[in-house]
Amino acid sequence: MHDLHGNDTIKVCVYFPPKINSAGIWESKTSSPSVILNYSLPVLELHMTLAFFVTQLVHFILNRLGVGIPLLVSQIITGLILGPILMLANVDAFKAIMFPPDFGIEGIDSIAIFGLTLFLFLVGVKMDVKRAFKTVKTAKLIGFLSFVLPLIFGLIVFGIMGDKNQSTELTAERVAITVTESLTSVSVISCLLSELKILNSELGRLALSSALVGDFSSLIVFSAVSLDKNWSKSIGMALLNVGGMILFGIVLVFVLRPFMFWMIRRTPQGKPVEDKYIYIVMLLAFGSVMYLHLLHRSPVFGAFLFGLAVPDGPPLGSALVDKFECFVSGSLVSLYVATTSMRADPMKLFADLAGVQFSVILGVVTFLAKFIGTFIPLFFTKIPLKDSLAFALIMTSKGIVELAGFSNLKDTKVIQDPNYCVLVIGVLLNSTIVPILVKLLYDPISRKYAGYQKRTIMHLKPNSELRILACVHKPENVATLIGFLNTTYPTEESPNVVYVLHLMELIGRDTPMVIAHQKEMISGSSYENFIMAFNQYEQNNCGLVTMNAFTAISPPDMMHEDICTMALDKQTSLILLPFHRKWSIGGSIETENNAIRKLNCSILETCPCSIGILIDREDASTRMLTKSPSRSSCYSVCMIFIGGKDDREALSLAKRMSKDTRLSLTVTRFVSGADSKTNYMLDWDQMLDDKVLKDVKHSQTGEYGEITYMEEIVRDGHHAAEIIRSIVDGYDLFIVGRRYGVQSVQTQGLSEWSEFPELGGIGDLLASTDLQSRASVLVVQQQHYVDVDVDKS
Length: 793
Description:
Largest sheet: 11 strands, mixed
Strand content: 5-15%
Strand order of the largest sheet: 5-6-4-3-7-10-15-14-11-12-13
CATH architecture of the largest domain: Up-down Bundle
Number of domains: 2
Number of helices: 27
Distance between the termini: 60 Å
């Protein structure tokens, strides 16, 4: 029987043929009912059931505390509870039931390690490798420091507390503990981020990228040490191991991954992957495990690497997760963690006080070294203090991988029982405290999509591409969005990249999914019409526009997650959202969908970039749609400017549109009487307003197209409404800032009769049926990026 984690062989004598499963009710009537436990399968089921129920009981009790204790903590506590109970139960009959001679703890360990292997495989499957490898320089530095600094300081502690006359076994034990404590496991951090529901946040992605760099740094160091060790023994064996690992990587990337993409191409869009492909992938996964076992490497690492090669998401990755995750995470992982922590005997802590002291000091020093080493670089890149602290805590987290490493060291007799117990308790404390502190520092609901980079139109570099995410609910949204996109004036120097996301409600018991449509495979799909329309828009713009189409199928309450995640993934500067109300050509309300309104409000609160809610009126939409590059028709746009960041973002978009000679832009600034005379420079916001308006005031021609600038002195909101009524029929499109919650003289009183507060005072007025307007409206909100200075104060 093999320990599949550490490549050590344990010889166990068993009866032949092995007694696996009982005959149930057909057993001998004279036999005791306990005879069923003479078979290995019922014993395994007993252990799994015991571990599962005790784990769930402990987790239920801990959840009553209301602090969000992870399941791993409950699993470790289960082992610490069951271990002493089983050890203290010296009754022979009890031992015979729990650990029969022909199915001892080694057999249970093998099943548990099988569960660990499947668990790490699924962790790899769920991880987006492309996203994780898109690391910034900061992530590379942090990832490297997260491994090197704890290792250096750990070795310093080892040197200070060591003794020249200490035995070789003690030296090996302390070096092994130092190295293992220095590790940064991307699997553990991925699980923690998933548990905290911040895996798709900017902070979560940075942590995942840094952890991946840290993992590969440790892999390089370990490979170099292993190569040096094998080289001194046998040059041929060393070269064989290195060549075998290189071959494994090449086959993984250039053979197996393309083969799995071939499976995906063979699966019709929107349909589940066939079972035969699932079985083939699992066979390949176990083949990877056995291959690394033959190379004297950790087989569970092979399962994780193969999992990384599996394309994440639907249809293949999600099918694997759906099929196996419940059983693996619910049963096999509980069994593994419980059996691993059962071997930690707190009664032996006093057997080696010097060793225990070394382990405790080393654990504290490596924790502080990793915490400080990951906190300082991030803090000096102007990330807010609380977020930097939360990030550093995430990078210090420990979990099932560290437990597996300590268990392997105990199996190979490298570390002794007292140190093993300290290390398991250290993982328990870390897994308990770190998630609680991260939740206190980083709110996953309000800050999940908070950005540290400014993804706005206003902050785009000159002549850079404009990335837009256009959301489609119904077929009538297509003409509206294409009509507006026609006004954004893409050029060769400043092209548009448009991501079209078709939002569909999840019906029945189907699995939520995001489908990436391939242009060559559109024909015959249920999404053909809307994709063809956007493809035609791309072709009409002669290579100035790049279009990518997706369909997200999810419950209405989760649609904003799909939108925000894609905006973060694609690094868009603007999200276009259709308004929930549709007007007929005659100006009356045709349809109204409150679910879309709720979705729009959710995105306004959480979005990682700027947002535009497009209120379409049929006449204006038709004029936008016909303003193609081959036509010379003029399209009139009015931008109403009062002040603030939302208005500045709206003006930045309007100025980009004004470069089109077929579009005339009028910028109307509403100022109060005091502002028009003396108060322009009273605060920072007004200084920024004047800066963004400077080129509009003094340069009606030049960089931009035809721009007319005017100022209107406004006494209050009622006066502003009168001015808007007087000009509303002269334009095809109004662009305004949302300015939600911003108080000013110019909008005073508008909120009293507001129908749609999410549009702001001016936006709500322009969307009102009382105005009897035929013009479309775009309400713009600038990205709520993290204000570093405010956060630090």
